[in-house]
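The pair is quoted verbatim as follows:
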Amino acid sequence: MDGPCSTLLLPSPARTRGTVPMCPAVHAQTGSMNPLYWRPGQNSSLTIGGNRPNANYFLIDGAVNTDPTFNTQNLSLSPDAVREFQVQTGSYSAELGGAGGGQINIITKSGTSKYHGTAYEFLRNGAMDAHSFNEDPGGKFLVQNNFGASLGGPLVGSKTFFFANYEGLRRVKAITSIGTVPMEEEAAGDFSGAGVDIFNPFSQRANPDYDPSKPVSKTNPQNLRDPFPCNVIRSGLLNSAAQVMLNRYVPRPNTMDMGAMIMDGVPSVVGAGKDSNNFLDQRNQRSTNDQGTLRVDRVFDQAGKITARFSAGAEHGFTPQNLPGFGLFHDNLSQNANIGWTRVLSSNLVTTALIAYSRLSMTHSEENAGVNNIIGELGIQGVGFGGARAWGAPYFNV
């Protein structure tokens, strides 16, 4: 969840407890994450004791809540559903120890003898944000709505209670990136204005003057090739798959070389001419998150209690990446449920039995899946598999 959350830092082995008016520890926010620790729609991570984010162990009401794919948090609960959280580091108590980093246990709220509820809506809009003087106008777009409600109270009589919570997030944000794409004449094989010499690979031959006692260099090449006249490749030598890809799926430059960008007096992007850093890509990233929790507690006269809880979160959205037309769609569903029985045996002895369920279902698809069979169109053999859901372009390295 996006919100006024901050990274939790634990400088030494410790046990930390907290209650919520603040964001739960597991909502520590990061701006940019390695995909190893991140899934689209789940923008949270936690680093404890110098360990990596996938070295922690997450629980909800004592039940496992660790993502089996990334080994991070499976379901990120709404703060309104959290009663307290506990973070243990260093030496853990006997019931913990599922990972070498921190052990994070979140306890959900339960209903009480009186009805209590909340409702909220948080709006963040790019039109109301502060912007720097050199920010591109197209990158200012942002519309974010975070809303939800909760209700808890007695369900039946004075010994059965319930608590229900829902939270939703709707966010559309402009993502700006700078890319390098070929100019029109380069796509046709004309590199006369590129500022470099290109050579015919079919003319390669051994250099009779090569000195093996010296390193291979521009003045001591191991092989020789003939340059193309005027740095123009003959049309008959242009690869047909490359021509289709360049002319149908790769855009042309829409800006000049942006290699003069300066940050704190240090060049942040180094350009090499008019055919470098010449494409300004601005597309909208879309996120739709919905989650909810339902908990029922039954208290017995013999100092015992049964608790049943079910929580689920759905993440849907689109993330721009690579060139326009090659973004990523994601549809993720995380579920966590448990049924627990607790009985107080004496003033210093409590017994608990717990049955838990934790599941994560992830579906990712490329923007061309089921739409454009680019590999088939290019005629490249041996790389297309997976059916229509795997349609898209092969990986190119230039």
Remarks:
- The longest helix spans residues 240-248.
- Residues 1-37, 260-268 have pLDDT under 50 and may be disordered.
- The two ends are 38 Å apart (CA to CA).
